[in-house]
Amino acid sequence: VSTQSTGAIKRFERRWVVIKGITLYYYKKDDASSAPLGEIELPGKRITQPPAAEGVYKFDLIDRDDTSHFMCETKSEREKFIDAISSICYAPFGGGMFGTLIEVSVRRERVHGGGTVPRVISQCIGFLDTPARIVENGIFRLPGNERTVKQLKMDFQEGLEPNLELRSDTHTVASLLKLYLRVLPDSIIPSCLYEDFVAVILTYEIHPIEGLNEMQHLLKRIPPTNFNTLRMLCMFLYKVQTYSASNLMDLNNLAIVFSPTILKNTSADHSLEKEMEDIQKLKKVTEIMIINCAKLFPADRDLEDENE
Description:
This protein has 308 residues and is α+β, with helices and mostly antiparallel strands. Helices cover 47% and strands 10% of the residues. It starts with a strand and ends in a 12-residue tail after the last helix.
């Protein structure tokens, strides 16, 4: 790490970096208990990446006063590092939603005129929910342009509002939406409620109305912002599966794609048998919510966050 404050760039030296709260500390060796060599306050910093060079993976943290230069050993390491700090750097601009809890993102965006769900969710669904795009073969199954997905992600991270109509296609925006959900710190339904939700499956299979009533009651326990996000997503996915004759994405296929991000099991039991059992349970919960979205989610209004 080297820091440029007066125009002269020092040579790069290996440092151990730790992020605590909103501050990045760097140490001479892998020992965070020792005194740091320096620290960088992250909020408000801009992240830039110099032109790529073979085997060189740099990025800079910039503000009005100085520039801090970083170089990572691999491209993957650089991407993980940028993901880790961008949610902190761009928070003052209403950005940093990738890798951040839904309720935190919505609270940040409200300051900048945002709504009741993360902007990336509402804008992606708004883009996809058109007669031409919703019937496109393989929506949410076929990958989009990786480079464009990455650029759109950084635009949203920086608090910008990219024009999806000018720069994107169906599969690219669908991939961006899946990426946002995949990197959330927790599933849309908090994972602590996993056992409660999967317990509803048996009730639903025997008494569907009673099972839906139980699930509706459980949905009241998730944060309002997560409820609003889940509501918007499930209602759109219900619409997508009604066109499965054209887009080849029926209820089963959509549940396979989205169940890992709608609800997770974070228990310590990671045996193959348990994982296979979880996959089926999570898929079933997702199917129930999509096909019964009109009953489970009031259509007239979003829930308000009591912390607002």
